[in-house]
From TrEMBL:
It comes from Drosophila madeirensis (Fruit fly). This is Intraflagellar transport protein 56. GO terms for biological process: intraciliary anterograde transport; intraciliary transport involved in cilium assembly. Keywords: Cell projection, Repeat, TPR repeat. Residues 10-23 have a biased composition (Low complexity).
Length: 578
């Protein structure tokens, strides 16, 4: 996994701090012989203290320059030649994530000393995303059986999509007994979302190499990707018990906390290391945006699009949440999905765009992506897999099937407003109005409650649950616009069908005032006749609270000539309506 391709702002400051702390005794009026360094380069490297190692090497360079000036033996005293010092400094910069500086140093070494560092150059290029340049350089290296060259080439051809060469190298690594080659193969399984295959390789290697503690981190990553967050944390704790300062392990622990609890809990794990210029700083900054529910997304994520793979997905999700579907689509349209969550997000983006534009083509693309995940043998019994299948059937408008899948995962989303909203729509479409009404009334998200679709469905459910006045209240709380007109039409027609004639009459009366068409008058006339029938038969529904005078009042406001005739008839038979 590439964690950072750019030098962090604090990298140079860390270098300066380390340097000054080891050479702080150099000032003063008179020159003094320095005390021998208290550690060796090997000590720093074993401890993975690359900042300390780099400072040690630079201190050695300073000593050599001074002794050369004094006529001493120079680098011979330190046991390292200048060429070795330069290579070790480049090595430290690479391991500190400063790939550009390491690349520059290796180029200088190659140019000045004609030293064979092509593979080092190619590895730096790989981490900088310069795949074409790295591939060209590696292809000209004549060492056919070099294991590092084989591993690097394996990942380069994967990045470049050179299928035949990749397949040949895959077979070579699969048949190799080398631990390094097996680990490289496992990492490829991980990159291709073949997590169980990666787990199998890691477990085999760990059986014979129990002191390879970092493999526990790789296993934990695989379990995380398979949604086994508790298991991931259990394996990760084995590594953290011995390496509690590992940035990658701490970050993964935060991700597990995010999945098991919430973003606030996750943020506590990494807040102390997020801004100290540590290795993996880009990854930490990316994850803080996620943990904070998108806060700072536009400031941080665009710069990480070619560095952290998930940045593209999370920026697209941010745009979707902001209602900027076109921007989300612009990010996702060139993405070729390789994992379930990528297929799901691409499907959601196309569904949103299809609904926005009224495009059947986008809706069809959404159906295909979501159905592919939901019907997959590896995903069909997972929560995302069932959500995907429910979404696909929703787009197919096969709502009975939607209910089958949503019922199977309902217990995981009891208080989820988005889930309840979609569940209510499916319930309403299949005639389960009471259950739909209850689900809609549970929703607290005002962004959802202010949606036109929410108001339409809620009004329909109120009417079919014998609460027509609640449906009328939904209308009168809305602003007067084209959407309110559609809501009024729904209330008028649904109330008429459900024999809630009084609210239907009020709705048709309002429609007639807004649009005095024959259809609206006929609806109003029929609703008023229904009210009279309800009053005459002493029915439990469809009657006005204020009695017959309210019906006469509505008819009197009509400009249609038939209204006066109806009023005369009502007055003639008024004794029947008391």
């Amino acid at each position: 996994m590439i964690l950072s391709r750019g030098k962090t702002d604090s990298a140079s400051s860390r270098n300066a701090t380390s340097h000054s702390s080891t050479s702080g005794g150099r000032g003063g009026a008179g020159k003094q012989r320095k005390t021998p360094a208290p550690a060796t380069l090997e000590d720093f490297i074993i401890k993975r203290d690359y900042t300390g190692a780099r400072a040690f090497l630079e201190y050695t360079n300073d000593d050599d320059d001074e002794e050369e000036h004094e006529g001493g033996e120079g680098a011979a005293a330190s046991g390292l030649k200048q060429r070795q010092v330069d290579q070790w400094i480049a090595f430290c910069n690479f391991h500190l994530g400063d790939y550009q500086q390491a690349l520059t140093q290796y180029k200088a070494i190659q140019k000045s000393e004609k030293t064979n560092v092509e593979l080092n150059l190619a590895v730096c290029m790989f981490y900088l995303g310069l795949y074409e340049e790295a591939h060209q350089l590696v292809s000209h290296i004549t060492e056919e059986n070099n294991p590092l060259k084989q591993r690097l080439l394996f990942h380069l051809v994967h990045k470049l999509g050179i299928v035949e060469e990749w397949a040949e190298l895959h077979d070579d690594l699969e048949n190799s007994s080398s631990v390094e080659q097996q680990l490289s193969l496992a990492s490829m399984h991980y990159l291709r979302a073949h997590y169980q295959e990666a787990i199998d390789v890691y477990k085999r290697v760990l059986v014979d190499n129990k002191d390879y503690m970092a493999i526990n981190v790789y296993l934990a990553l695989c379990f995380y990707k398979l949604d086994y967050y508790d298991m991931s944390q259990e394996v990760l704790d084995v590594y953290l018990s011995q390496h509690s300062d590992s940035t990658i392990a701490i970050n993964l622990k935060a991700c597990n906390r995010f999945r098991l609890f919430n973003g606030r809990v996750a943020e506590q794990e990494i807040k102390n290391i997020a801004d100290n210029g540590t290795f993996g700083a880009d990854l930490l900054r990316h994850n803080l945006v996620v943990f904070r529910n998108g806060e700072g997304a536009l400031r941080i994520l665009p710069a990480l699009l070619n560095i952290v793979p998930e940045a593209t997905l999370n920026l697209a999700i941010y745009y979707l949440k902001q209602g900027d579907v076109q921007e989300a689509h612009a990010l996702m349209k060139e993405l070729q999905p390789t994992s379930p969550h990528e297929y799901i997000l691409k499907g959601v983006v196309h569904a949103a765009l299809g609904q926005q534009l009224g495009s059947k083509e986008h809706i069809k693309t959404a159906q295909q992506n979501l159905h592919l995940v939901g019907s997959s043998a590896t995903e069909c019994d997972t929560i995302p897999g069932r959500q995907s299948m429910a979404s696909a059937f929703f787009l197919y408008q096969q709502f009975e099937e939607v209910l089958v899948y949503m019922n199977s995962i309902r217990s995981y989303f009891v208080n989820d407003d988005v889930f309840n909203y979609n569940f209510a729509q499916a319930k309403c479409a299949t005639g389960y109005y009471k259950e739909a009404e209850e689900l809609l009334m549970q929703i607290t998200d005002m962004d959802i409650k202010n949606q036109h679709t929410y108001c339409m469905i809620l009004a329909k459910c109120h009417i079919h649950c014998s609460h027509p006045e609640l449906a009328w209240n939904v209308f009168i709380t809305r602003d007067t616009n084209a959407e309110a007109f559609l809501l009024l039409q729904l209330i008028a027609n649904e109330c008429y069908k459900c024999e809630e004639f009084w609210v239907a009459a009020k709705a048709f009366d309002m429609l007639e005032k807004l649009d005095p068409s024959p259809e609206n008058w006929e609806g109003k006339r029929g609703a008023c006749a229904g009210v009279l029938y309800a009053m005459a038969t002493k029915a439990h529904r469809g009657r006005p609270g204020g009695g017959i005078s309210e019906v006469i009042g509505i008819l009197r406001e009509s400009s249609n000539s038939q209204a006066e005739a109806m009023i005369k008839t009502i007055r003639k038979h008024i004794s029947n309506f008391k």
